[in-house]
Amino acid sequence: MTYEHLDSDLINELLDNGRSSLRSLAEELDVSVTTVSNHLSDLEDEGVIEGYTPKVNYDAVGYDVTAVMQFKAEGNALPEITETLREHRQMISVYEVTGDYDVIAIGKFQDTDDMNDQIKTLITDPDINQSNTSIVLNAVSENEQFELETGEEN
């Protein structure tokens, strides 16, 4: 095998099964365990692979309300707002964005009362100028990752 696309192939294998052993990855990629280990270490050191975590089905553990919240920041308060949202344990994604709002946050809640309480706490922040919340009716696709192109035909 050529090593030209090894990093992409390694990442794609891990996307398929993040619990794969070095040995099984080496067999699948037709390289040595040492080669896989070295490339994996390099990818981790470079920040390409940031960790190995389980994919949690929040609905299955009682967090079946998803809300998409948009916030306008007051003045130069954007860093404070995003930090507050990032530290909030039920916010699974926080984005600074362009457009009518400055921040979009996605949160998971146990029910609408839980969501309502959390949102009311957040919007009392004087740095938040305006907010808009949408409740997700159906998550068609969520937390998906995609395979990297390797330049090889599949």
From TrEMBL:
**Organism domain of life:** Archaea
Q: Show where the HTH asnC-type domain sits.
A: 3-64
Q: Name one Pfam family in it.
A: AsnC_trans_reg
| UniProt entry keywords in alphabetical sequence | DNA-binding, Transcription, Transcription regulation
Q: Which GO terms describe its cellular component?
A: cytosol
The yes or no answer to whether the keyword Cell inner membrane is present is no
Q: Which InterPro entries match?
A: ArsR-like_HTH, AsnC-type_HTH_dom, Dimeric_a/b-barrel, HTH_trans_regulator_Lrp, Tscrpt_reg_AsnC-like, Tscrpt_reg_AsnC/Lrp_C, WH-like_DNA-bd_sf, WH_DNA-bd_sf
Molecular function via GO: sequence-specific DNA binding
Q: Does the keyword Signal apply?
A: no
CDD domains in alphabetical order:
HTH_ARSR (cd00090)
The UniProt entry's GO biological process terms, in alphabetical order, are: response to amino acid
Q: Which PANTHER family match?
A: LEUCINE-RESPONSIVE REGULATORY PROTEIN, TRANSCRIPTIONAL REGULATOR AZLB
- What protein is this chain from? Winged helix-turn-helix transcriptional regulator
Q: Which organism is it from?
A: Natronorubrum halalkaliphilum
Recall the taxonomic lineage recorded for the source organism: Archaea, Methanobacteriati, Methanobacteriota, Stenosarchaea group, Halobacteria
